[in-house]
Amino acid sequence: MKVVITGASGFIGRYLATALRGQGNTVVGVGRSEAVALSGSTDLLQVHTDYSLPHLESLLAQVDVVIHLAGRRSQRSDHLLSITPFVEPNLSLLERLLDASASARVKKFVFASTIAAYSQANAVPYQESDKVSGLNPYGWSKIAGEGLVDLWGRSGHMQTTSLRLAAGFGYGERLSAVLMRFIDQASRKEPLIVRGNRHVGVDQLYVKDIVGAFMAAIAPNARNGLFNIGSGRAYRLEEMALAVANAFPDVEVRFEDDPAVGAAGPYMDTTAASTGLGWCIEWPLEKALADVYDTWCAATTPIKRGSK
């Protein structure tokens, strides 16, 4: 197959491109940046685009599958009630890409959505059939994106699938999430300090399981539609810190928190992904962190590994 990945130079895109090439697919990575190149990926066709409709229509000629990862995530400086920063990167761009995909007769379109489509108004575990109200403006932009993708799919132009992804982690991810901060601190042999409430839980998913979900979604027998992609449980801060300390040698865990009971632990039900895509988690937290450690060791020098 010929597969186009938008956002191919991003965290998930780098791993996904490698996996797709490993199965003999032709992979085209596209993005706004001139530096679309992926480390060690000389066999990846890389294309710089302005995401204009004419360029996308030309770019998608003879493409079988489009996997749309590009978009804007929430930032600390965002206004809590404004969707404006997300309109162009998460909605208008998506609409142009769907239009171009239909014109180019792309067979399958897969959209990366988010667990942030859900909020505290939803019962745990989150179900695809839930009425969603969006955790924040980013979540709302993804809900609207899911609607666009579904609309184009129902029009008969192409097969469409949206994947609501849990918080991803792995080597190379940004350090804004607590698990990635723990990993970064452990790699520098700094103590892992648990603050707030050790019982608070997060639905965390290893990047290789996320990649597996996208691979399953484009398989010939995969169903179309909307699917939750998560670990099927919430990992508590305490669990995460102890698991990271177990994966990285000589790391201390300190608890400076108020361990109140009844802490939030939202997560998604993934039954639909199991039955509809044949996908299930293969990298539970401990196994995934051991792989992160091995990847980190392979990517760093012995001197760097031994220093704080």
Automatic annotation (TrEMBL):
Superkingdom of source: Bacteria
Entries under Pfam families matching the protein: Epimerase
Domain NAD-dependent epimerase/dehydratase: 3-230
InterPro entries in the record: Epimerase_deHydtase, NAD(P)-bd_dom_sf
Residue runs in coiled coils: none
Pathway, per record: Bacterial outer membrane biogenesis; LPS O-antigen biosynthesis
Family statement: Belongs to the NAD(P)-dependent epimerase/dehydratase family.
Name the record gives this protein: NAD(P)-dependent oxidoreductase
Lineage, uppermost ranks: Bacteria, Pseudomonadati, Pseudomonadota, Alphaproteobacteria, Caulobacterales
